[in-house]
Amino acid sequence: MEITMYQVDAFASEVFTGNPAAVCPLREWLPEDLMQSIARENNLSETAFFAPEDGMFRIRWFTPDAEVDLCGHATLASAYVILTIMEPSRTRVGFLSRSGPLGVARTGDLFAMDFPAQPPAACETPAQLLSGLGGQPETVLCSQDYFVVFACEEDVLNLTPDMNQLAGLGLRGVIATAPGEEADFVSRFFAPGIGIPEDPVTGSAHCALIPYWSKRLEKKDLYARQVSRRGGELFCRDLGGRVEISGRAALYMRGTIFVGP
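Above: the chain's sequence. Below: its structure in token form.
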């Protein structure tokens, strides 16, 4: 069996920045264990698979260790493949997912994703979270992830987490965020429990980041930077129950996977 695969740097204007995702367009679904094996072999934070369904595409995302309910950068990478390579005359694409319908629209070189808002709320603060991060936050909330707010960008940049401690927390991951010096806000994302020690740029984390910072800063349009080693920029908009997360993408590689006898 031969499967076409693309590797796309998402939330990036050029290769070697942003967050790399593998994208595998399918005509029909592969066995789940095979998709997980491909994701493990790729050893990227996410591998996306999509197949046609009801005039749209059903999309699934796999880390090296597990399937996840929502992934931003691999959705952006998939939309890039569809709207610039497979069907370049289109400007919009719709996906069906475990998190409901997701839309992506292309305007020039920007891809705008329509995702559900996941505003963080008050929660218990595990001691393991604070010792694992090794910093002193102002606030700890949670949504799909623990949501840890620091006083300034430097506090977030200086974090050196203990991944073994963070891996045992139970939620998907940990968002560390603060007001930005040149952006409205900055963030980092750690998810060692699902095989991602630090994710370079995390679109889905902004489902929580956007409503929080929109309310705190009293503005709907926000410019964000994820301050990982690779780094990435996101153009955000609070839509109430939904959020718009926009970014660029760059194609790094196209190849063929060979599986089976």
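Residues 45 and 226 are 15 Å apart (CA to CA).
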